[in-house]
Design brief:
Elements: H1 8-35, H2 37-48, E1 49-54, E2 61-62, E3 69-81, H3 88-102, H4 106-117, E4 123-129, H5 131-142, E5 149-158, H6 172-175, E6 177-178, E7 184-185, H7 187-191, H8 193-197, E8 201-207, E9 213-222, E10 230-232, H9 236-253, E11 257-263, E12 270-276, H10 284-290, H11 298-301, H12 311-321, E13 329-332, E14 335-338, E15 343-346, E16 354-357, H13 358-363, H14 367-375, H15 381-394, H16 423-430, H17 439-450, E17 454-455, E18 461-464, E19 467-468, E20 475-476, H18 480-496, H19 498-504, E21 510-522, E22 527-542, E23 550-559, E24 563-565, E25 568-570, H20 575-587
Parallel strand pairs: 2-10
Antiparallel strand pairs: 1-8, 2-3, 3-4, 3-5, 6-7, 8-9, 10-18, 11-12, 11-23, 13-16, 14-15, 17-20, 18-19, 21-22, 22-23, 24-25
């Protein structure tokens, strides 16, 4: 008979081990269920729910009156489907039915079918439906012509004002648009994204079987803040007039594009700004797929060689240096050889006009005279280059103006301190070749010439919500007396030359400005483009003599002249004619201008 194998000690050890193990298990369970309760609950919730950011209502954009809506947000329907629950035959039927309701062609129907063929649990088939279309889809769902299809509500940015030309909305380049993710693109929409969008509401919602949030069962984590409204400096009526003028000139001149900006020279407020071809902000997706470059605003985001409008900068440098007066006589020889006869510049007609006053040379846009003045700004070529360059940078060229629109570029201005200028560089620069600028830079510089010599910051937003936007103070860049002389010089341009006089002057108003016609370099072919030119006119219009009310800058890009002879390049609508039309539209816009402008400073004041 075997002996007993049990023992009291062994039983006690086993019991103790069981007690220790049980205690550890209980402690561990207590730790998970008590100490880690919130963590586990959060993990469970995350597996069955989603964190969803719901965009807050986006602020609206109004014109300067605060009444005309330029951009707003409405709630529209989108069509969604559970494609994985449809047979191949039903997918084809549903694509055909939806194409009929949505008015799609064969390509549109094929695109719908392609989305359904993927067989995903959740697919968006169409967005931004108008109420009538939504109702037709609801009827089709009720009639069983559509299955596994439903409508969902989503905010949609709309631009309700039609533009001045076909397939465009008002101020499209200036406003920009809002993409599908609710983010502003280009213009005001991008520049003021934070203010317009506000902050999103954060909600936690249960998932349905397709992994979509069920917002009816959601809880709010962060209430968010709604976007704020903007009131612009733009006058909607003038903006429409301007766009209609641009469209007409674009058609008449067979130009690549036509741009203009109307600005208050004393405050920097932009009353109207546009380019044609424009686009429809409500249908930006069509443009994005075919010609995304059209979104770029040429007024602030595209540079070009401005041509002879830059002779006004040469005049400033000459007057300030004391090397020339308006009545100083200078000989125009038609062709000027430079750099020891290795380079030359010509007048447009390649014919000299002989001895003439400097103010007449500016009026008749003589390249040779402008070059002589620039080269004689100082005793050496290097010093003359520094003086001319300093005037350019002081008037804002080579730097952003600070206009509150997305995408502004600085322009291209060579610095003689970094790369030594030759005589030909000074000569070309004196009449606006070899330098690249934007229309908004030109408008701002000419505003300083007209307003008593102060550089203003152009801007398009007047108020955010009910708070006026703070604008940086004006900077003195030209002496008041010199500003008065420049106003007279610009007026002399349009009154002295018969070619300008008949198509620029406006009875009852004073006008002045400077034209520019510039060749266009074709980088691909390494030569100047044939019979294509950039035409510019920057000028002012005044109700009272010597008191400019508005600055209007016009650019006709790659216009093709209908009359092309040496020294004479004419189009159906010239830049100064377009200036006249826009200026008269602006000056007669009800309530746009203040009653009186600052009194002029006598021309005898110090420069």
């Amino acid at each position: 008979m075997l002996g007993r194998t049990d023992s009291r000690v062994r039983l006690l050890v086993l019991l103790l081990g069981l007690v220790v193990a049980s205690t550890a298990i209980v402690a561990r369970l207590a730790w998970w269920q008590v100490a880690r309760r919130d963590f586990l609950a959060e993990q469970a919730r995350m597996q069955t729910s989603l964190r969803v950011e719901v965009a807050s209502p986006r602020g609206a954009i109004y014109d300067r009156s605060g009444v005309v809506v330029l951009a707003t947000t409405v709630v529209r329907d989108r069509v969604v489907a559970a494609a994985n629950k449809l047979t191949a035959a039903r997918r084809r039927d549903i694509a055909a039915e939806l194409a009929s309701i949505l008015g799609l062609d064969a390509d549109g129907q094929a695109a719908l079918l392609a989305k359904l063929v993927d067989g995903r649990q959740y697919v968006v088939l169409a967005r931004g439906l108008d109420p009538e279309t939504s109702q037709r889809i609801r009827d089709a769902i009720a009639d069983k012509r559509l299955e596994q299809v439903s409508l969902e509500r989503e905010p949609t940015r709309v631009y309700p004002q039609p533009g001045g030309g076909p397939d465009s909305t008002l101020a499209a380049h200036l406003l920009g648009f809002v993409n599908r993710d609710g983010v502003g693109q280009y213009g005001v929409e991008q520049r003021y994204q934070r203010e317009l969008a506000g902050s999103p509401k954060v909600v936690y919602a249960q998932k349905d079987v397709a992994g979509r949030p069920v917002l009816e069962s959601s809880t709010v984590g962060d209430a968010g803040t709604p976007g704020t409204d903007l009131r612009l400096t733009i006058d909607a009526g003038l903006q429409l007039d301007l766009e209609q003028e641009l469209f007409g000139a674009w058609l008449a001149d067979s130009a690549v594009a036509v741009s203009a900006v109307v600005m208050d020279p004393y405050t920097g407020e932009i009353y109207a700004e546009g380019t044609y071809p424009s686009y429809d902000g409500n249908d930006y997706k069509a443009i994005a797929s075919s010609d995304a470059g059209r979104f770029i605003d040429p007024v602030v985001s595209e540079v070009y060689e401005p041509g002879s409008v830059f002779k006004m900068l040469t005049a400033i440098a000459g007057f300030e240096s004391g090397t020339v007066e308006p009545t100083t006589r200078i000989k125009d020889v038609g062709t000027l050889w430079l750099d020891n006869h290795r380079a030359k510049i010509d007048d447009a007609d390649r014919k000299g006009m002989g001895w003439m006053t400097f103010e007449d040379a500016i009026a008749y846009s003589r390249n040779v005279v402008a070059s002589k003045v620039a080269l004689n700004l100082a005793g050496t070529t290097a010093d003359a280059a520094e003086r001319l360059h300093e005037v350019w940078t002081r008037l804002g060229f080579g730097n952003a103006t600070g206009v509150d629109l997305a995408g502004e570029v600085r322009g291209i201005v060579s610095d003689p301190g970094e790369r030594k200028w030759r005589e030909i560089d000074i000569a070309n620069g004196s009449f606006g070749q070899g330098v690249a600028v934007t229309p908004i830079q030109l408008a701002t510089a000419f505003a300083a010439m007209a307003n008593g010599g102060q550089l203003v910051q152009p801007h398009v937003v007047q108020a955010v919500a009910n708070r006026d936007v703070a604008v940086p103070p004006r900077r003195d860049v030209i002496a008041p007396g010199l500003s008065s002389e420049l106003v007279k010089l610009m007026n002399h341009v349009v009154t002295e030359v018969p070619f300008y006089r008949g198509r620029t002057l406006i009875p009852g108003y004073e006008v002045g400005g400077k034209t520019g016609t510039a060749q266009i370099w074709d980088a691909k072919k390494g030569r100047w483009k044939v019979n294509l030119f950039n035409y510019s006119f920057i000028g002012y219009i005044a109700r009272e003599a010597g008191r400019p009310d508005l600055i209007v800058a016009v650019r006709i890009s790659e216009g093709r002249p209908s009359v092309a002879r040496v020294g004479h390049l004419e189009m159906p609508v010239m830049s100064f004619e377009l200036f006249r039309r826009i200026a008269l539209d602006a000056i007669t816009t009800p309530g746009l201008l203040p009653q009186r402008r600052p009194a002029p400073v006598p021309a005898t004041a110090d420069r």
